[in-house]
Amino acid sequence: HVQLVESGGGSVQAGGSLRLSCAASGYPYCVGWFRQAPGKEREGVAAIRSDGGRTYYGDSVKGRFTISQDNAKNTVYLQMNNLQSEDTALYYCAAHRYYCGYNYWGQGTQVTVS
């Protein structure tokens, strides 16, 4: 069983930065970040594999967002730089114990860019 707790959301002006954290228990193999804005479909933002740290990014965030992990703290981070209004969304952390599909989800943390 995997449990995920996100933190670090908030409000920021355009061009600013935020770092989201996902505390993950249960040793997931792959952890990803997703986001969903009102009236829009859920979008994959980034993902990281625990074996070697291979990362994946959505096209809309490449070059601005960085996903990383601290295995000692069982935490995955999403560093978001140069935030824009279109990044405003509810951000979710998701995980799976064996591959990069997602069957465990956190409660979400709101990011608002004005």
Overview of the structural elements:
The chain has 114 residues and is mainly beta. Helix content is 0%, strand content 53%. It has no helices and 11 strands. It has strands at 3-7, 10-12, 18-25, 30-36, 43-49, 55-57, 65-70, 75-80, 89-96, 104-105, 109-113. β7 and β8 form a beta hairpin. The termini are far apart.
Quickly describe the structure.
With 114 residues, the protein is mainly β. Helix content is 0%, strand content 53%.
Could you name the key traits of this structure?
114 residues, mainly beta, 7-stranded mixed β-sheet, 4-stranded antiparallel β-sheet, globular
Uncertain segments:
none
Q: What separation lies between the terminal Cα atoms?
A: 37 Å
Radius of gyration: 13 Å
Helix-strand pattern, N to C?
Answer: EEEEEEEEEEE
Q: By helix and strand content, what is the structural category? A: mainly beta
Q: How would the global form be characterised?
A: globular
Name the beta content range: over 45%
- Secondary structure tally, helices: 0
As a percent range, the share of helical residues equals under 10%
Largest sheet: 7 strands, mixed
Number of DSSP strands? 11
Rounded mean pLDDT score: 95
